[in-house]
Write a structure and sequence with these properties.
Helix 1 crosses helix 3 and helix 11 packs parallel to helix 12. This protein has 14 helices and 44 strands. With 892 residues, the chain is α+β, with helices and mostly antiparallel strands.
């Protein structure tokens, strides 16, 4: 049902009701011709709301002229008694003042033949709900609001600057349904602004906020929870104008007063087929006891779709669930199906869709019966969740593990809980968590035993090294002399001092040994004498293998490589079998003498336009590409997205894309772009997967992606390999605003290919989860980082620069980065923070394999070039190939 159709239907219906009520009112209120010629306006009380809106009951007072007067004063003290003294409308002063009361009151005026104008005259349309039913204003952010239904509309803000249809229209959109279930945020307020005459709509339903972000509501109401209200099922008001969904009851139970209890309705209803495909007509109550209870009845109650149910089909019509029934699902919020298919297919055994049946069965994974002897697929789960893993069939879940007892040999420290989190497991008294024994509980102290068990040739009462004493005897032929087993009886042991020894162990001259101590950190024990070192031996760098020099004349044994890797001639672990192969879409591998690359991001004007860049943006972009070219040794550059700000129509962004690629020509190296939200439709939560490109997205692919990479996909990878085979580096370009299951599978397989370095590039940072691909790709990043397979994640979107693991160096009101994540978003868009526009350069340091990343300033905040480009002294860090920090930030 279209919005226009709904409006015309509501108005027509209201007009008919108004005429009927007016006719009834005339018969019951024009019998007081003996009244005085003038009415008094005395009031026994003040009305709590206007008489032309619906709300709580009003006071009729104790006499014919003592009723309340509305705040506007447009009625006298006779009006409310006139209404409520009629038996059919007595409820208006005891229960609720509704549309019937307001329409009946409209009869008490001269225009209807009454001798006095006692009451105001509303329009023939249904009167509005009194202002103030929303929990907060629509132009600020706060808790979820009540969307109501297409017939009655949703809540109205206290300011009254929106009608009852505004909130409903927002939440009926699939991408904004959360505004009435979770939170009313900036996206809800901005979307509401589209329902105006200026936007081509028939009515000014909603207020129009400024284009910048709306502010949070002051004060406000704290919504209650299902638990606080004691509700275990169904929907219930949250106390702030919103509704809570408290779930559904298990098999064999029914929901009564929002509590589950024993009942006779079993299973998820009796609907014979999925509501989103066409088939035989249904019973209007077949969804009883389900999460969409009342949906079928709502569809069949509408005048043009009564044929959808066997018990409502009009005489002479055929009962069938057809395309009109499927389309009507959109207009009933209880159906939870905001966008059913425009051309639904007929249901067939084993192949019908599943949204309605899955919702009704409270199933989000696996298969359930489709009512035809076949099954419906309700989806898959995201690891570590599995279908039924939490103990409930067809529900994604997992079973959280618990820590072992903590006995010797048990796992301890930070342990995976099996559901994507971790456990902090400790050991029992007497044991400690050993980092040298693979995180297992080990005794705090292992007592020594006599002889080879640790005490050597000591005898008598000897310390066991753990605070206890043991008694040791000597072998046959030896005697215990001064606590030492000796032969010959007359031997006097020597001492370390007499032998001028101060470290290690030496013979005592009587068959035993002497412990002469250990050396300081800066000395080594040579021939049992501590020799001070003038050279500090190095340690094995990450990813090294085999035997390498220690820098002080000795050698280090760095061990073997993990499974699937081999030790190269340069003593670094590399994938077995030569150059790694990355899944398509990917670029052809490129060999380099050294690994050096540039990073830029977020290059767009401050407001939407269909013309080219403003001059200041051209200056900023030009200074960046000119600066990269002047560096002289940057073979390729990665970009983190947002190259234009325009409408989505084909050709609208072409002038800006053309300006960008013109500036890019100042740099002669390879350019590798990432898709941003402004390459979809501009909204952060937008999604333009392959096969559904808008005109602007296709222009982006044609003018930037394909000329730069030869690819037609907005996501791809690139592999760089050292000339001598000593390292490999893969760059993974993720399109979070073109997300689908195909890209997710590609990303998982690409990250799994072993390479020395892995650099992931995505537009949205981890703290902005609105983009469809942010959270699923971030889950894969975190897993790779935990296993040492992710070096760094480069993001943009926020117009500033940010170091890993925090908000430095210039702060970010949107939150901290992950330990492996940086933000490079100062490429020309209006800055959120920081002193300049610029770019970053990443360089591999050959001595230890660390990647050193330095930010460069190319233009000031007004777009004036900085010549020569200057290093930002607050942004430099080093990271090892496995993603761990390297304290040495010296540039190669």
């Amino acid at each position: 049902m279209s919005t226009v159709r709904r409006r015309l239907f509501s108005a027509t219906f209201a007009a008919v009701i108004g005429l009927v009520l007016a006719a009834c009112g005339t018969g019951s209120s024009k019998s007081s011709d003996s009244e005085p010629t003038e009415r008094t306006t005395a009031a026994s009380s003040t009305c709590t709301h206007e008489l032309t809106c619906s709300g709580g009951p009003l006071s009729k007072g104790t006499g014919s002229s003592t009723g309340c007067i509305p705040p506007s004063g447009n009625a006298n003290g006779y009006c409310v008694p006139d209404v409520c003294n009629d038996p059919a409308h007595a409820y208006c002063c005891t229960s609720t003042w509704d549309n019937g009361c307001a329409q009946y009151a409209a009869d008490f005026n001269r225009a209807h033949g009454w001798p006095y104008n006692d009451c105001p005259t509303p329009s023939a349309n249904p009167v509005a709900v009194c202002a103030g039913t929303c929990a907060h204003e629509l132009t600020c952010t706060g808790g979820a609001l009540s969307g109501g239904s297409y017939a009655s509309g949703g809540c109205i803000p206290a300011s009254g600057d929106a009608n009852g249809y505004c909130v409903h229209e927002v939440c009926a959109d699939a991408n904004h349904a959360y505004c009435c279930t979770s939170t009313w945020d900036n996206g809800c307020a901005q979307f509401a602004a589209t329902f105006t005459k200026a936007a081509g709509f028939w009515y000014n339903d909603c207020p129009t906020p400024a284009s910048n972000q709306v502010s949070a509501c002051s004060g406000g109401c704290t919504p209650k929870t299902c638990s606080a209200l004691g509700a275990t099922c169904g929907s219930i008001a949250d106390g702030c104008g919103g509704m809570l969904s408290c779930g559904m009851c298990g098999s064999g139970q029914t929901c009564t007063n929002n509590k589950c209890g024993a009942g006779t309705t079993g299973g998820p209803g009796t609907c014979a087929h999925d509501l989103t495909c066409t088939d035989a007509a249904l019973q209007s109550t077949c969804d009883s006891g389900t999460t969409i209870s009342g949906c079928v009845a709502a569809v069949c109650a509408y005048s043009t779709t009564q044929h959808c149910c066997t018990n409502t089909v009009p005489a002479g019509q055929t009962a069938v669930w057809d395309a009109a029934c499927v389309a009507e699902l959109h207009w009933h919020s209880v159906c939870q199906i905001p966008n059913p298919p425009a051309s639904p297919q007929a249901c067939s055994t084993g192949t019908s869709g599943g949204p309605a049946l899955c919702l009704a069965a409270n199933a989000n994974c696996g298969t359930i019966p489709d009512g035809h002897g076949g099954t419906v697929n309700c989806g898959t789960c995201t690891a570590p969740m599995t279908c039924g893993g939490g103990g409930t069939a067809n529900q994604c879940g997992c079973t959280v593990k618990t820590c072992p007892a903590g006995n010797t040999g048990d796992t301890c420290g930070t342990v995976p809980n099996g559901c994507g989190g971790t456990l902090a497991c400790s050991c029992t008294a007497g044991d400690t968590c050993s980092s040298t024994s693979s995180g297992t509980c080990q005794p705090s102290c292992v007592p020594m035993t006599c002889g080879s068990g640790g005490v050597g040739n000591k005898c008598g009462s000897v310390s066991d090294g753990c605070g206890g004493q043991i008694t040791c005897t000597c072998p046959v032929g030896e005697t215990c002399t001064n606590g030492t087993c000796q032969t010959g009886g007359g031997c006097t042991p020597t001492t370390c001092a007499s032998q001028a020894k101060n470290c290690g162990s030496i013979p005592d001259g009587c068959g035993g040994t002497l412990a002469c101590g250990s050396c300081p950190v800066n000395a080594t024990c040579t021939n049992n004498v501590c020799i001070t070192q003038t050279c500090t031996p190095s340690t094995c760098p990450t990813n090294d293998c085999g035997t390498i020099p220690d820098g002080c004349g000795g050698t280090l044994n760095c061990g073997a490589c993990p499974s699937g890797q081999t030790c190269s001639p340069s003593n670094t672990c590399q994938p077995s079998g030569g150059t790694p192969t990355l899944p398509a879409p990917t670029l052809a591998p490129v060999k380099l003498g050294s690994l050096v690359f540039g990073m830029i991001g977020d290059t767009r004007p401050s407001s939407s336009t269909t013309s080219g860049y403003p001059q200041n943006v051209k200056n900023e972009i030009g200074s960046i590409f000119a600066g990269l070219q002047a560096q002289g040794n940057i073979p390729f550059v990665v970009a983190s997205g947002d190259y234009a700000f325009s409408s989505t129509a084909a050709g609208s962004a072409v002038p800006q894309y053309t300006d960008y690629m013109t500036a890019r020509k100042q740099y002669s190296g390879t350019y590798l772009p990432t898709m941003g939200n402004h390459e979809c439709n501009g909204f952060t939560n937008s999604n333009c997967p392959i096969g559904s490109f808008t005109g602007m997205t296709q222009d982006y692919v044609n003018l930037i992606v394909t000329p730069s990479t030869g690819q037609s996909s907005p996501y791809f990878s690139a592999l760089y390999v050292a000339n001598d085979g000593s390292w490999t580096a893969k760059y993974v370009f993720v399109a979070a605003n073109a997300w689908d299951s195909t890209q997710q599978s590609w990303l998982q397989r690409t990250l799994a290919v072993p390479t020395t370095y892995t650099i992931a590039v995505r537009h949205e940072p981890s703290n902005d989860t609105r983009a469809p691909g942010t959270t699923p790709s971030e889950n894969l990043y975190a897993s790779s980082f935990a296993s040492g397979a992710l070096t760094v994640s480069v993001t943009g979107h926020t117009h500033l620069i940010q170091l890993p693991g925090g908000t430095q160096p210039y702060g970010d009101q949107f939150g901290a980065t992950k330990a492996y994540e940086i933000i490079v978003g100062n490429g020309g868009a209006p800055l959120d923070a920081g002193p300049s526009y610029g770019y970053a350069i990443g360089t591999r340091r050959a001595s230890d394999g660390a990647l050193v990343i330095q930010m460069w300033e190319s233009a000031d905040t007004s777009g004036n070039p900085i010549s020569p480009n200057a290093q930002d002294t607050k942004f430099r860090f080093a990271v090892n190939p496995n993603g761990t920090p390297n304290s040495n930030t010296t540039l190669p």
